[in-house]
UniProtKB/TrEMBL annotation:
It comes from the Bacteria. Pfam families: Response_reg (PF00072), Trans_reg_C (PF00486). GO terms for cellular component: cytosol; protein-DNA complex. This is Phosphate regulon transcriptional regulatory protein PhoB. GO terms for biological process: regulation of DNA-templated transcription. SUPFAM superfamilies: C-terminal effector domain of the bipartite response regulators, CheY-like. The keyword DNA-binding applies. Residues 136-235 form the OmpR/PhoB-type domain. Residues 7-120 form the Response regulatory domain. This protein is a positive regulator for the phosphate regulon. Transcription of this operon is positively regulated by PhoB and PhoR when phosphate is limited. The keyword GTP-binding does not apply. PROSITE patterns: OMPR_PHOB, RESPONSE_REGULATORY.
């Protein structure tokens, strides 16, 4: 069973919403740390090292997008963005900056808690799951190598940095080079509850992964787009 004493940093400039989220998460077993804005969020993150962050997008001063970018420069901690329904651009920008998931306002606290559990479960149990299905921890295709137990990625001797979601996507694609995955199939590899339109975020995750692993992201050699269908990892003879 997952350790429910995980620390969750809750960042929202609206005290009522911030308190509501904290109270609910604490009621279901989590520890919470409130932050009223982006400045507080970055400062508290450095001091407390939370296991997951819930970050509102629209905040005065340093907003959620900029806060996420600053935190991503330091850590791959899971981040869930809170956005308004009209902020479609903010959802995609948040993912571009490294957020792992998003949920729109107004939202169900039960759903938010489920998203939190799903992200933490993926990080906490990745090693156990690998052992249970007896997957070789090392996957290497030409210059790219990943260790599924240590969650590390190397291009030749250079160590690369991916978020937990990005790593999960890359790992699943590399396990079946040449196989075409639809966006929904990729989404199902890390998201338990699939919502209408959510598959569009896969394009952003793939774009971010390419920025890290590809020498020329605009001319990808590892993760290939299969137009109208989804994506595949290049087979051995086609990769670089």
């Amino acid at each position: 069973m997952m350790d429910m004493s995980k620390k969750i940093l809750v960042v929202d400039d609206e005290e009522k919403i911030r308190k509501m989220i904290c109270d609910y998460l604490e009621a279901v077993g989590f520890l919470t740390i409130p932050a009223k804005d982006g400045v507080d969020a970055v400062s508290i993150f450095v001091k407390e090292q939370p296991d997951l962050i819930i970050m509102d997008v629209m905040m005065p001063g340093i907003d959620g997008i900029d806060s996420t970018r600053r935190i991503r420069e330091r850590s791959n901690v899971p981040i869930i963005m809170l956005t308004a329904k009209a902020e479609e651009g903010d959802k995609l920008l948040g993912l571009e900056m490294g957020a792992d998931d998003y949920i729109t306002k107004p939202f169900s606290l039960k759903e938010l808690a489920a998203r939190v559990r799903a992200l933490l479960r993926r990080v906490s149990f990745s090693k156990v799951e690998e052992e249970e299905v007896k997957i070789d921890p090392i996957i290497k295709i030409k210059d790219l190598k990943i260790d599924t137990e240590k969650m590390t990625v190397y291009r030749k001797s250079e160590k690369l940095s991916l978020t937990s979601v990005q790593f999960t996507i890359l790992k699943n694609l590399m396990l079946s080079p040449g196989r075409v995955f639809t966006r929904i199939q990729i989404l199902n590899s890390f998201q338990e509850d699939v919502f209408e339109g959510y598959e569009r975020t896969i394009d952003v995750h793939i774009k971010n992964i390419r920025k890290v692993i590809e020498r020329e992201p605009s001319k990808p050699k590892f993760i290939e787009t299969v137009w109208g269908v989804g994506y595949k990892f290049a087979e051995e003879e086609d990769s670089v």
